[in-house]
Amino acid sequence: MPGRRPSAQAPGFPARAAPGAGSLSELDAVVPACRACPRLVEWREEAARVKRRAFRDWEYWARPVPGFGPADAPLAIVGLAPAAHGGNRTGRIFTGDPSGDALYAALFEIGLASQPRATHRDDGMALHGVRITAAVHCAPPANRPTTAERDTCRPWLARELELLGPTLRAIVVLGGFAWQALMPVLAGAGWRPPRPRPAFGHGTEALVSDPRGGRDVCLIGGYHPSRRNMFTRTLTPAMLHDVVRRGAEIAELPVRP
Ligand code: SF4
């Protein structure tokens, strides 16, 4: 019914609520209310009930995890989704798991994070010129959201990038899932992704133009700093450092040598 507030449980909630967010702080406030994906709602809350032994004293966040970083960031970093005992516990993206440890360490090394480690929402971490977010905002079982869940969540990321648009110059995309997810997001937010669609690879760069007259945005692919990728050395800390540095350079952010 016109004028009725959309239910947070409706599959169409993100599509109806995201465009109404007039700023990133408004978006960050509404995302955690979302319950549009029943399987993910159940999983995130189940993880919070069962907990991991090391975190048994924690009260888990157990809600969608919004992006983190300044609203005028020229650089964005897009990952897959929060981890059940990482972001789903701490309430901040990439915070509280080995992937986040590697990412924030890389950001700190080049001067884009105020601290080398992120541990919880009130740890004092500040990001400089970079905003971190994800293609899917709830922790999925086995770190694998379904295609339908990815698509349901898409409007949140589309609105986030749209709001970042005036300053956004580069996006570091961590992992093939986020790379695939991002192309329709960019199209939905008004950009023109390259055709044919470039295949994901570590170090791949692709330019996304803005037919509205805005500046181009450069995508930089990077392997996801998952436990498996780091353990097998598919991705080393130096490789992660380099891809983040490349994004910062393209975004014209001052970085530490
Ligand atoms: S994954 Fe996205 S759309 Fe689905 S419940 Fe979480 S925030 Fe909502």
Automatic annotation (TrEMBL):
InterPro entries: UDG_Type-4/5, UdgB-like, Uracil-DNA_glycosylase-like, Uracil-DNA_glycosylase-like_sf. This is Type-5 uracil-DNA glycosylase. It holds the Pfam family UDG. GO terms for molecular function: 4 iron, 4 sulfur cluster binding; DNA-deoxyinosine glycosylase activity; metal ion binding; uracil DNA N-glycosylase activity. Belongs to the uracil-DNA glycosylase (UDG) superfamily. Type 5 (UDGb) family. It comes from Nocardiopsis sp. CMB-M0232. It comes from the Bacteria. Residues 66-244 form the Uracil-DNA glycosylase-like domain. Keywords: 4Fe-4S, DNA damage, DNA repair, Hydrolase, Iron, Iron-sulfur, Metal-binding. The keyword Acyltransferase does not apply. GO terms for biological process: base-excision repair.
